[in-house]
Amino acid sequence: MSTATAAPAKPPTRGHYVALICANTPICHEHYRLTLQVPDFPASEPGQFVQLLCAPSLDPDPAVSGERYNPTQISKQAEFEWPIIGRPLKFHDEYLLANRPYLRRPFSIAQRRDLPASDTAPAIAEIDIIHRVIGKGTRELESLEPGESISLLGPLGRGFALPQTLTHAVLVGGGVGIPPMLYLAEKLAHQNIASVAFVGAQRRNLLPLALQANSQPSPVGTPNLCCTEFARCNIAAAITTDDGSLGMRGFVTAALDLYLAAAAPTARAGTVVFCCGPTPMMKATAGVAQRHHVPCMVSLEQPMACGMGTCQSCVIKYKPAGAADWVYKLTCTDGPVFNASDIIW
Ligand SMILES: Cc1cc2nc3c(=O)[nH]c(=O)nc-3n(C[C@H](O)[C@H](O)[C@H](O)COP(=O)(O)OP(=O)(O)OC[C@H]3O[C@@H](n4cnc5c(N)ncnc54)[C@H](O)[C@@H]3O)c2cc1C
Ligand code: FES
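That is the input. Now the predicted structure with FE2/S2 (inorganic) cluster docked in place:
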């Protein structure tokens, strides 16, 4: 008789989930905070993302397909013949003709709260996504109501790794790159790592953050406890807007440059810049960090299709120090977080 015991099953690191929408609240012009409850969601790290199916799916399970688009009901349109197909429309034809956002869309995890399992219910991860309405998929997200469900894949990609030598974190977020910085801020606060944040938006009403009543953002980019989400983690923040409608006028990299220039070289030891935002902003941030001899990690937001290493749509050119030549890397599975100096921008 064998005495071998089966190895315990490894917990999944990612999966397909039906998430319940708890809230979808406007937070500023074009931005919404979407709060999702996901049962038994695996552990996740700041910098990781989820793929949301913004259009209701063809899954016959109504929990996945959503009540708004029931595949068992074919509309009256299906009764006529579509000449190209030469037969009555079926549900799948209708679905494709509807010109919906068929591919999933990637969104960073902006915050996570874990509710423990009880005798009657599994553990629930409450996940916040902050999304800006810019196209077909995000317009569908905008219309989601509490009580509806959405299909979610995740957590995906590699998040921010905190180096052992890290004593001072400088968070830099621009536009829809701000959400992963909120999740990172919470982790850093939890680990008692001193941090400061720099956030940039085009203008005041495109900043997806709340302002403290008792502290105004500095007009010269000096970080203070002006921003509720960071103040909650005891992190001072500097806000910049392109048009000067809030905080310092100009790009977030200008405020970062002033800050790093003012820091004594000894204070820069143990400092790491963590950045997410539009590509030109991340490239400029990497340049500022390099000039001040501070390491920089960036979370890239390349447009993606599959999000899990299959379609090859998200490649970047990568050349780490010492490598003879560059290679392609996939943003979705090798990243989205990379060492900024390893990227050919
Ligand atoms: C890893 C990752 C994390 C992301 N996190 C967030 C987030 O937290 N919040 C958020 O609002 N958005 C985030 N994005 C961007 C988000 O995925 C896109 O805004 C979304 O896919 C747009 O879908 P749509 O159907 O509304 O727009 P579409 O109709 O697909 O596109 C509208 C326009 O936006 C452009 N566009 C679409 N995606 C991108 C992109 N990634 N970069 C530059 N231009 C783009 C298109 O070329 C087009 O011009 C993230 C992207 C990645 C790769
Ligand atoms: S998004 Fe498909 S391979 Fe990266």
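Residues 64-81 have pLDDT under 50 and may be disordered.
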